[in-house]
Amino acid sequence: MRTKLEMMGQLRSSFSELNISEGFEFDTEIVTNEIKEDCKSLLLSNEQLTTLMKDMDDAIRNGLRKDTNPSSIVKCYVTYVQDLPNGTERGKFLALDLGGTNFRVLLIELGENNYFHMESEIFKVPAHIQTGKGTELFDHIAKCLAEFVKKHNLDSKNALPLGFTFSFPLRQVGLTKGYLNSWTKGFNCSGVVDEDVVKLLKDAIKRRKDVEIDVCGILNDTTGTIMSCAWKNPNTRIGLIVGTGCNACYVEKIENAELFDGDQSKPHVIVNTEWGAFGDDGKLDAIRTKYDREIDEDSLNPGQQRFEKMISGMYMGEIVRLAIVDLANQKKLFEGRLSEQMKTKGAFGTSYVSDIESDKANYRETLKVLNEMGINDPSLVDCANVRYICECVSRRSAHLVSAGLAVLLNKMDEKSVTIGVDGSVYRFHPYFHKLMVEKTKQLTKSDIKFDLMLSEDGSGRGAALVAAVAVRDELPLKTNGVAAK
C-alpha cells in the first residue's frame, strides 16, 4: 500500500483537479524529508541562541564604555532623551518620520483629558534621490514639509516645534544634533555620512524661506516607539522595531552610559543599541547560511548589518526566494522548474511570507502567491514545502529578535517591563508575536515579567512627543497645582 507521502508526491495536477475539501487542514507529514534536512541550517537551538546572547551582551557592554566603544560593533548611541511623557504635554507639534522609501509628515495636537488628534501625509522618496546627493534629499523633505504646513493652514511665521525620526544609524551628541554613521535600507545619498542631519534639514528649510520650523529633537524609530507606548504605559522600558529594518533601544542607568555627557542629575537615558550591526565582526558566522551570505554580498552595504539581514522585512522574503531557487535547482521543488519571476532578485516580497503562513486550509494563499510568482502548477507537496521554508525563515527571525530582547531584559534586571513594538513584520506576520513571546520567556530570567505592546504609530507620534516633552521642559506647565518636570 502506498504511503500518504508517495500519493501526495505524485499529484502534479492543478488544485481544481485535486478537489480538496473545505475541511482540509495542514499536514506537516507531507513536507519532504529532504526539504526538512536542507532547512536545518535555518533552525536555531537554545544552545546556539544562548551563545549569541553572551556575545551580544558583551557587545552592548563594550558599546556603553568609553574605552571599548570605538571598537564595538554594537555602538549603543546615547539619545539624550531622558524624560518620558507624563500627560501634561499640550499644544500642536509636527513630526517628520524618515526611515524608508516613503516618509511621513504629521501634525499632532495634545490637550486636556488625554486629548489626542493626529493628521498625517505620506510622501515618496524617488529612487534617484535615495542614491543621489544629500542636499537633494533634504531639499525634497523641506519642500514636502512646506506643502504640509500650507495645506493644514499652520502659522508658518512662528516656529513650529518638530520632532525628527531618522531611522538610520545615528551618533547623537545632543538632543538636536546627530551624525549619520552609515546608510541602510537601500539609501546611499552622498555627503550625509558623518554629517549632522539636523543641520542638513535646518539648512534645507532655511533655503526655502517660506516656513519656520524648530527641530526640537532627533530620534530613531525605536526611541519613538518607547515614547509612544510610555504615553499610555509608563512601564515601557524597551522599544523594538521589526519592519524594513530591525533595531532596539532601552532605558539605561546614567552611570552605565559612559559616553553620556548630558544632564547627570537625571537617573536614566535612552540608549539606541543599533544592534542590526551585531555579527559584523564574525560573531554570527556559525549560524549564517549560504543564503545569508549571498544576500549580504549582493547588498548595497556588504559586511554591514548582518544581524538585521537575518531578521528584517527587507531581507526575509529574499531569503525564502533564494532557498526556493536553490532547492528547485536541486529538483527538490517544482520538479526543478522555475519561472523568471522566481529567479528575479527581490521579486518574492516579505508580505508573501506572511500571506503563505496565514493559510488556514487548502494552501489557497500559498497557491495564489506561487501563481503570482509564475509557478502555475505546484503540487500539494510543493505548497507544503514552500510553507515550511517560510516557517523556518520567519521562526529564525523571531528567535533572533527574542535573543536580543532577552539580553536587554536580563541586563536591566527589572522585574516588570513593557516592550513597545512596531514594524510591518511584527504587525502583519500571523505568528511573529507568539513566537517572540514563547522564545523570550525561555531565554529570560525566570523572575522577570514582560509584555509586548504594539506601538500606535511610534515613529510618528513618538517624534511629536519628543518635541512636546522638550517644549514642556522649557516651559513647565502646572496641572492641579503641581509643576510638570
UniProtKB/TrEMBL annotation:
Question: Could you tell me the superkingdom of the organism this chain comes from?
Answer: Eukaryota
- Enumerate the PROSITE patterns for this protein: HEXOKINASE_1, HEXOKINASE_2
Keyword presence, Lipid biosynthesis? no
Pathway involvement of the protein, from the record: Carbohydrate metabolism; hexose metabolism; Carbohydrate degradation; glycolysis; D-glyceraldehyde 3-phosphate and glycerone phosphate from D-glucose: step 1/4
Q: Per the database entry, which stretches of residues form a coiled coil?
A: none
Q: Which GO terms describe its biological process?
A: glucose metabolic process; glycolytic process; intracellular glucose homeostasis
Q: Which GO terms describe its molecular function?
A: ATP binding; D-glucose binding; fructokinase activity; glucokinase activity
Alphabetical list of CDD domains matching this protein:
ASKHA_NBD_HK_meta (cd24019)
All residue ranges annotated as the Hexokinase C-terminal domain in the record: 237-469
CC terms in the record's Gene Ontology section: cytosol; mitochondrion
A Pfam family annotated for this chain is Hexokinase_1
Query: Which InterPro entries does the record associate with it?
Result: ATPase_NBD, Hexokinase, Hexokinase_BS, Hexokinase_C, Hexokinase_N
Q: Which family does it belong to?
A: Belongs to the hexokinase family.
The name on file for this protein is Phosphotransferase
The taxonomic lineage of its organism, from the top, reads: Eukaryota, Metazoa, Ecdysozoa, Arthropoda, Hexapoda
